[in-house]
Every structure is written in structure tokens, then in C-alpha cells.
Amino acid sequence: MTMTDKDLSNFFRLKVEDPMTKGDIGYAGDVNTLMPLIYHLCYSIQAKVMVEIGTADGSTAFPMLKAAEENDGLLYSVDPTICDGPESMAMRLVKAFDLEKYWRFNNMKSDEFFKNFDKKIDFALIDGDHSFPQVAKDVRNCCQRLNPKGLIFVTDFSPCRKSTIEYINETGDIQCADGIYKGLNLVINEFPELSNITLFDRVNASVIIGRSFQQLS
Question: Which domain holds residue 137?
Fold first, then answer.
């Protein structure tokens, strides 16, 4: 089956309807307020080359894949923690909605992915490793490859910019709760031709980077 407008609307509304299960909807809940925006941004700029850093269950991949289908584009998703198998919700739903031909999944870290990726990016979504050194590298890699009308969407950081809470991730690295904010600040001044705006929802904050709205800054 193909993903219809109704399927996409149900996904945005967190409505359970075959082939989406309660488990799928539960995982999508943390980004559901962003999913319509991600879709409309990708669709409106007619993005053909899209990059997603951090796939997890596929909550952000599906809006981008629907836009890829409509724009005749490709989504390159990167995530080292999920694999191409039936146990992956993202893989199951991509197959169920017949979106495989619009998707190139890369089961690797983003540093490895960018070593061999030489395409210009129309739209990038960054929601991977939240440590500020890695965020800085991901943002820099996307900025260096960004098309003149392209956009970069960086999400899932704390609206409280003064947060300095540190924690240990599963690999033993020290991370900060405001690592995304720090990583963005570290890089954004390297690209004076780019502008950015910050969006806030009830839980998280996001930043959109691009040239398209610079005249409004």
C-alpha cells in the first residue's frame, strides 16, 4: 500500500490505523508537533536530496519520505543504532507504505556517512548524537553541502539555554543537556551567509538554518 494523505494525517494526529500500531504512535509522540512542519518545509522547497541524522522509529522519516515521493526525491537516513530488519519499526512501516524506493538507509555513524557523501543537500534534519562536539560536526557537514535554497532543521534541545547538567551516555562519554545549543553556537558563525530562527514547543526547541529567510533577519 502507498502512504495516502489520510495516512499522513493520521500519523500527524497520532491516530492508530493499520498498519500503524499503538507502539508506533507512542514513539512518535515526542515529535508529533514538528512532523507537519517538517513535511511542509520539504514539500514547499521541492527538496530532492534530504538527509536525516537520527532515525530511531521513523517518526521524522515518514513526513520526509512522503515529500520525497511527491517531489521525486530521496531521503538518506543515518543511524548506527537500528538495523535493516523486521524488528525495526521504521523498516516495517517503510515497507508497509511502499516507500523503499525513496529511502536510502545508512546503518552507520554520521561521520562515516559524510566521508563518502558528496551531494548537495536540499533539506537536512539533525536529531542524532546530542553531544555538542558531534552536533557541531553534523551541522558543519550539512552547512558545507547545503544548496542555496536548502534548509537545515536541528531539533530536540532544551529551551533552557543555561542548562549545564552533564550525564554519561551508553558509550561512557560525558554529554551536556544543552549540547545541541552549544554545538550550534560553535558552528553557525563559520557560515555568515546563513541565518537561523528558533522555534519553541511545549517540550523542546528547534532551529532552522538557511539562506531563504535571511532578508527577514
Answer: 5-216
CA dihedral for 119, 209, 200, 161, sign (positive or negative): positive
27-65: pLDDT as tens digits: 555 566 788 889 999 999 999 999 999 887 777 888 899
CB 56 within 8 A of CB 91: no
64 vs 1: which has the higher pLDDT: 64
HSE of 195, CA atoms in CB hemisphere, 13 A: 9
> In the structure grid, which three cell numbers stand for residue 129, read together?
548524537
Distance, in Å, from the CA atom of 113 to the CA atom of 3, rounded to the nearest integer, reads 28
CA distance linking residue 25 with residue 10, whole number of Å: 10
39 to 2, 116, 158, 164, 168: CA distances (angstroms):
16, 27, 23, 32, 33
Beta strands in 94-141 (DSSP E): 103-106, 121-126
Note whether 4 and 17 are within 8 A (CB).
no
CATH of the domain at 180: 3.40.50.150
Q: Position 99: which residue type?
A: L
Number of domains in the chain: 1
d(CA 197, CA 54): 21
**Is the previous residue joined to 19 through a cis bond, with omega within 30 degrees of 0?**
yes
CB 109 within 8 A of CB 36: no
